[in-house]
């Protein structure tokens, strides 16, 4: 076993070391701050809540409860700190990467599995699309992708559980007994159902795309007359949808928040269903710049599935490929047509498309033949005509030109050389150089995690109106009185700068700039 799996285990062990290296170096930011703050209060106070002026209040904008609980567990074991909070997410990210390569191995072969790893690590053209960068943040995408891929691998295992009796257990047009089929695959189907349901609970936006993916798999199974597979895929889809509210109710019992949680309305309108022309142009621009290669890979994967269907290839891999293609393709289509256009929202489909990009590159380079690709590129100069093989070689080169330089830049700038502790230094200023009863007004939630002083922030509903300003470019009025809490200091960072939350107070002379610490401006109250 060691001889067979030694190299993969060594590679992913090195990836794990790479993930934890300099884990506290990249700066904490707004989305991380809420989860880190709640997890800190859970670890220190045993209370699933945020602090507002030093008083526990309802949770709200943090990641899903399992993610927050995992961060709190890390705090209890390793202490309170940024790298400790990110550690569980790094483990989930490396697990997701390993499962993606394992799925590529099951759907294609060993060569594509290794190429998938290279595509994921070197050809991700934007820091928000790179697993090694995104996975080092306290976000739910990594755990969600890990559970999603685990569910697909379990479903693939369930479909092909009896390799020696496939012609009896899975045969077109014939209906084997439920007992013979279920005896070998029931546990795998249950495991697939559990993993997919957990994935849905970790990231709510996953639901519509998983539905499209499973419907695609059901359609192909019906087309190939694999009735049992179609029925069980449908059962998994319906069961996951029905179990999701129960699982979320269980999470709420686990967290046991003692405060009424006030829901935020209108958030989907500013992130998930955006029809403004400027955002559509922006999303299309982001897609063409950073997602086009992944889309080409998905189109090539769809063409290969069509060819496999016509050629009578192995149906098990075809069904799971269709699920993955439909899931990633619909997610990519949503990003172009309806999303607000933030590149981070394109991360899951780009990540899931990596095996198909690897397969595309192998096809274009005739089995990753570098020297042969160079010869085919120069063939038109020698032969005075453009052949299909030459066009493939040039397309492969174009793919590398569009991705590899940006992938290397992403790693060098946002992984190897990225260190910014301005949030910690800002919090240290208040924790050591201000009185214990100091009150701070700030919407930079990452500071909430580091501060040992009382702080105040706007209601969660304000976040929606601020997004209309910063993401949609709308001049909305925000009814929030930042002086109501009688703060002594005001801290403005990247988030509040972007939506001009505190500009009226600063312009009116209510606060005076005291100093700048990195990207944070510290103001003192003018009384």
Task: Explain what you see.
This protein is mostly helical and 527 residues long. It has 23 helices and seven strands. The chain has helices at residues 2-20, 30-45, 65-78, 82-107, 110-122, 131-134, 141-159, 166-169, 178-202, 206-223, 227-255, 267-271, 277-311, 315-337, 347-352, 354-364, 370-383, 388-416, 422-433, 445-450, 461-470, 494-499, 503-507; strands at residues 50-52, 55-57, 439-442, 454-456, 489-492, 511-517, 520-525. A five-stranded mixed sheet has the order 4-3-5-7-6. It has a two-stranded antiparallel ribbon with strand order 1-2. The longest helix is centred in the middle third of the chain and has 35 residues, at 277-311. It is globular. The N and C termini lie far apart (72 Å). Residues 162-170 have low confidence and may be disordered.
Topology at a glance:
Blueprint: H1 2-20, H2 30-45, E1 50-52, E2 55-57, H3 65-78, H4 82-107, H5 110-122, H6 131-134, H7 141-159, H8 166-169, H9 178-202, H10 206-223, H11 227-255, H12 267-271, H13 277-311, H14 315-337, H15 347-352, H16 354-364, H17 370-383, H18 388-416, H19 422-433, E3 439-442, H20 445-450, E4 454-456, H21 461-470, E5 489-492, H22 494-499, H23 503-507, E6 511-517, E7 520-525
Parallel strand pairs: 3-4, 3-5
Antiparallel strand pairs: 1-2, 5-7, 6-7
> How do the SSEs run, as a string of H and E?
HHEEHHHHHHHHHHHHHHHHHEHEHEHHEE
**pLDDT < 50 runs, ≥5 residues:** 162-170
Mean pLDDT: 88
By DSSP, the count of extended strands is 7
- Structural category is mainly alpha
Assess the beta-strand content as a share of residues: 5-15%
In angstroms, what is the radius of gyration?
25 Å
Distance between the termini: 72 Å
Strands ordered across the widest β-sheet: 4-3-5-7-6
**Portion of residues within helices:** 55-70%
Largest sheet geometry: 5 strands, mixed
